[in-house]
Description:
By secondary structure, this protein is mainly alpha-helical. Helices cover 56% and strands 5% of the residues.
Amino acid sequence: MLAPVSALASFVDRHDRWCAALVLALMACNLFLGLASSNVNDYDEARYGVTAYEMQQHRTFVLDTYAGQREVWALKPPLGYWLMALSFALLGGSALAMRLPSALCALAALAVTMGAARRWFDRRLAILAGAILATTFGFLSNHGARSGDFDAGLTLVLLLVAVQLPGIAESPWRVVPVALVLACGFLLKSFAIAPMVLVAGSYLLWTGAWRRLRLVPCLAAIGLFALTVGAWAIARWRADGSPDFLLRMFREDVLGRSTSIVDQSTSSPLGYVTGIFDRFAPWPVLMLAAAAVALGSGGARRPLQALQPARPEVTRLLALWIGIPLVFFSVVRTQHHWYLDPTYPALAMVAAGCALFLVERTPPHRRTLAIAALVALPLALCEARLLGRLLIREPMSADQRFLRGLTPAATGCREIRTTCRLLHSERFLLEVADGFDVVEPWQALPLSASVHPAETACLLVGKPPWRSPPAPPPDRLPPRDRLLAESAAYALYRGAGAGTRPKVPLEQRGHGR
């Protein structure tokens, strides 16, 4: 009879496709559990969602808007908006539709990671790497695969570039599709592809693969990249009537973030190192333990056996794939933990190899215990941490549930006018999820005001404490008989201030966040 460890290894080897399917199912569960009802993030995803919805509604696929005004805050190329707009067109306006492209990109990234690990190493490492990535807190939490942000899409794009590098010199024309994928990455998050470009260049120099490249395919690749990105840049320039958006994108996203702290971020030379120990825990500790064991037993003569790839150059690729972004973003002044999301597939492969190495170095009679302590327990802790966030911290707040429950059918109103400037999440819920025409104090009344006069519109009042300017005093509110719905934070009245009492001054100035 086979020992439990041997039986498990044999099962994974014989049924690796079924094991991969189980890992994908685990990832799908972690991605979609409560995805439609989790809290809408006010920072980026809500603003992206409003912009993509207006793009889809108004069919303006080059010039993006927010609240009907030209979008000059996010400074993002359009590919992420296009994917989200397509999701809205297929599923309608909802939090699920906003997050679906990101979730699908993360699921695809997991499949690509396991496929690459299987080619480069073996079936066992591929399955374990997939399980690690599927339970990585940093990859699935805030700004990650479960949000309506573009970082999961960028992770997939850069992963597709990375997995092509070991064989890029085998065919002279393989650089062309790599350039096209990089162009898609630029159209997704602009200059965020820079670290992977450095990884690719460093890999070609370190391995000597650049000597086998040919001039004509390389020129074709550069031309394809320039044509793809340039077509959008020219279209945007023409739509704006000036290059101001493109210049601001470079000035603020490259120069500004490199030399100063923006977006309420932090800056520390070791910020990303400590961030990995937190958001990728506990695997960095196992990686250090494996390195210590290897060095202690004569690392030069007995390297990490489980991390010996079929192609020797893969080891260099993984080192560059993790190291260059870590150094690059540590030097940049504006630091956010999601900047390192594209490194998680490489970290998962290395962590899987280190865990398997420690199991292999354990005496045979203790390997069952080693698998439990070094593989099963860390995965269980990661999954528990993730589920704790999904079930406790992420569910939609009472205020957001109240706004989500306001629909034109339930209120009899097609338009909502507010007494204060809305947060991005509030506008997303009212405009995108509920389907209202939303007018804030700083906006001129839209053309639809002639169709929805004040008596058939609704007035949304925020109760103190809310935001500046403060809510109107009671004697400036509509009469109580016009009250449609009320919560601890909001009151919704039928009629935009109409009634026997003075109207709420919608023209009062609001202050941006």
